[in-house]
TrEMBL record:
Transmembrane segments: 45-65
Database matches in InterPro entries: ADH-like_C, ADH_N_2, ER, GroES-like_sf, MDR_fam, NAD(P)-bd_dom_sf
Gene3D superfamilies per record: Medium-chain alcohol dehydrogenases, catalytic domain, NAD(P)-binding Rossmann-like Domain
Residue ranges that the Swiss-Prot or TrEMBL entry lists as coiled coil: none
Pfam family, one: ADH_N_2
Record's protein name: Enoyl reductase (ER) domain-containing protein
Species this chain originates from: Arthrobotrys musiformis
Keywords: Membrane, Oxidoreductase, Transmembrane, Transmembrane helix
GO-annotated molecular function: oxidoreductase activity, acting on the CH-CH group of donors, NAD or NADP as acceptor
Superkingdom of the organism of origin: Eukaryota
Occurrences of domain Enoyl reductase (ER) (ranges): 91-425
Length: 430
């Protein structure tokens, strides 16, 4: 056989020469059979095969690289840290610092989630977390120290999971941080405030019925022991997240005869009458507020649900019935350097007249932290959900949108009383 020739056997099978399958390359076999230039095809076929191998090797390498890249996805996160705790009026630039940091999915440990922030809860108690006068061991939780990330409860979307019960795309309610992305831990490590559970339905409903909803529930029904036998209940910051629910439960669930709500504007007072069932809605900024308060409580007070402290607490104590109850839920007038009724600085002191009434009328004042009822939270959420479905409770929300750079403004809105109902920050991502 001449050099460069191909010998074909029966059926066109190559006996001597390049091995070619019987059926797939019939035209090529015919070309090889007839061409006098077969010696020029052999190196071309070899290079063609090499090119095909290199092409598929390149695709394979790109696939491996893409998989590796996904495995080690990195997110450029912007996160607010506490720069300097303050006991004075809050100033964002002095108190907080925005820091850019890189989060890698490869750094997640077992049980951790990398999550995208969707909605943040704005709560007055967050101001206490960063108050320089908050003492370790005397607050219901450890204060946030200088240099630590600012915390919040919120709704987060899982973008990467190393927890068996949570998958990518799930929404969770958790205690996280003021950041666009953060790492969440599914193991609370004994911290009852670090609970994390799935979100169903409208996520903002859970923020409204969540911490603030169960605060209203346990504060009124368990701590305050309110019943339908009570004739007069007074609620301060009544147009806020907790207060608005207290008023509705008192009126629409318990059927209390006289529900008095106190707020900071005529618009909010109108809301209290129309949406919260208040029989009296008093504007504490009105020049006639003290006279209005006496008129609304002319039969004295069975229960005062206190969210504000200061002068209004003093006014309520001298109008309490014998064995009256005061639920000490919050004292927002004392959390920051805000002004109380009449423009005077709020005071934590109780007047001698008010304290004498506490003694002589056997008034019970009791504070509480909602986490002390952690084992009853599901029952509270079930009841609240049922009342909402029955139309007895309406969820009043104030949702504002903000990029992560503007998130601290939500705390200022809250302290200034600019919100109506539950203040929720919707995080806008670039």
């Amino acid at each position: 056989m001449a050099v460069g020739s191909v010998e074909l056997g029966k059926g066109g099978k190559v006996i001597n020469g390049p091995s070619i399958p019987d059926s797939k390359y019939f035209l090529i076999k015919q070309l090889l059979k007839r061409s006098p230039y077969i010696h020029t095809f052999k190196p071309c076929l070899w290079f063609t095969g090499l090119f095909i191998h290199i092409h598929f090797l390149r695709i394979y390498i790109l696939h491996i690289a893409h998989t590796f890249k996904l495995k080690m996805a990195k997110y450029s996160a912007k996160q607010w840290f506490v720069k300097e705790r303050t006991g004075d009026s809050l100033e964002v630039d002095k108190t907080f610092e925005l820091v850019a940091k890189e989060l890698s999915t490869d750094d997640l440990t077992e049980g951790q989630l990398l999550a995208k922030s969707l909605w943040f809860s704005n709560d007055p108690t967050q101001r206490l977390w960063i108050n320089k006068d908050s003492v370790e061991g005397r607050l219901y939780r450890a204060p946030i120290r200088n240099g630590e990330p600012m915390e919040t409860y919120g709704i987060y979307e899982i973008v990467e999971s190393k927890a068996a019960d949570h998958k990518k795309g799930d929404l969770v309610f958790a205690r996280g941080h003021w950041s666009d992305y953060c790492v969440l831990d599914t193991d609370s490590k004994g911290d009852p405030g670090a609970f994390l559970f799935p979100v169903m339905g409208d996520p903002t409903d859970l923020l409204t019925l969540g911490v603030t909803g169960i605060t209203a529930y346990f504060g009124l029904l368990t701590v305050g022991a309110a019943t339908s036998k009570d004739s007069t209940i007074v609620v301060s910051v009544a147009a806020g997240a907790t207060g608005s629910l207290v008023c509705q439960i008192a009126k629409n669930v318990l059927g209390i005869k006289n529900v008095v709500g106190i707020a900071g504007s005529d618009t909010k007072c109108e809301l209290l009458k129309k949406s919260c069932g208040c029989d009296y809605a008093l504007n504490y900024r009105s020049p006639s507020f003290k006279d209005d308060f006496k008129e609304a409580t002319k039969d004295d007070i069975d229960l005062y649900f206190d969210n504000v402290g200061g002068e209004i607490l003093d006014m309520a104590l001298v109008r309490m019935k014998e064995f009256g109850r005061v639920v000490a839920c919050g004292a927002i007038s004392l959390y920051d350097d805000m002004k109380g009724p009449g423009g005077k600085a709020a005071s934590a002191g109780i007047s001698s007249d008010a304290w004498i009434q506490v003694v002589c009328h056997k008034i019970r004042i009791e504070g509480f932290i909602v986490l002390q009822f952690a084992d009853q939270i599901m029952k509270a959420l079930t009841d609240l959900g049922t009342w909402a479905a029955e139309g007895k409770v309406h969820l009043i929300k104030d949702i504002w949108e903000a990029k992560v750079e503007d998130v601290p403004q939500g705390m200022l809105k809250l302290l200034k009383g600019e919100n109506t109902g539950k203040l929720i920050t919707k995080v806008v991502h670039s």
